[in-house]
Amino acid sequence: MSERNVGGFFQKDADAIFKPMGTFPLACQFSSLIIDNFLGGVLAVQLFMYYRYHGGDKLWLKCLVGYLGVMNAFVTIFYWAYQSYLFVENFGNFLPWLEVRWLAQMPWIDGITVSAVQLFFAYRAYLLLNRNKFVLILITCMVLGALGGAIGLTIVFGGQSSLLGATNSGPTLITWLALTTAADITIAVCIITGLLRSKSGWTHTDKLVIKLIRLTFEAQLLPTCLAVAYLIEWIITPASLLGATFQALQCKTYTVGFLITLLSRTSLLSDSEHRRTTKGAQVYGMSSRGPIEVAVQVETHVNENKFTVTPAGDEFQSTYKLEDNDSTSDIELGHSNPSQARLHNPKPYPAQPYATSAIPDGF
């Protein structure tokens, strides 16, 4: 029975390659598993919070969140299976570490997950820039190019006989990571530009814009830095397992940043409610003036309206008499301000029944 080999390398060759490295290969594999599981726990909490507080979102957005959750769960299970293969089934054997069939599957999984997040942020940038179609088309082309590079890397790297053939997959890997980074930077610049244009000079609005800009950095800075670090690491040591550690974290970091953006609406709404319930002044710009105080005084006057009807030959004559307790003068009927006068007929008439009513001033 022939001895097992990977790309012409046998067990003694694998030992000669990995044993001089000491614990470095083991640290790379374990660190990726530990960090992936930690971010998986963070992601699980985020998913719970999202569906609890934002269940009223549009259907396409809820489906996108569900899709990303399923893909990240698949990545975690995939890494559990991979680590079990290395440390349980082949414990103490370095030959399986030269295999590429496991690692070659990660680029396309990352690609279809990360591209969904980037397209969401591209749509957000499109809306913030007044539906600028050029920006949307440009970012979409970058994202699709990065996705093509990820799929191409899976094909090229998967066709290598061993891990040491990773240098042959350079063009596709550089295409994937370079376009991913370019798309991230373009998205961040467009979103920040759109937010800065939204400044109105009002203190509360400007504070909200600053919070959203900071949130954009928090959500996208880590994944972008991770992609850049992966690219630099591969250029320096293409056959190192450290690159696999960076690659293992891409799905989680992009999805966690995506959910940070969605869940930020909860805190922003809470801050808005808090401001509405406080008595702070809404001031313009950086002015230090206090709130405008408006005092409204309402007075109600009680007027007595008396109507007297007396016969005068074949016709009736009527006299209207208005008595106002606040009036200070007597004038003839037709005065421009009757609410402060007493109107009467100069000739006395016998007392007649009258009616009274209360009306508000200015009615």
TrEMBL record:
All copies of domain DUF6534, residue ranges: 181-266
Membrane-spanning ranges: 30-51, 63-82, 102-123, 135-158, 173-196, 208-232
InterPro entries with a match to the protein in the record: DUF6534
Pfam families hit by this protein: DUF6534
Keywords: Membrane, Transmembrane, Transmembrane helix
Region of interest called Disordered, as start-end residue ranges on this chain: 327-363
Name of the featured protein: DUF6534 domain-containing protein
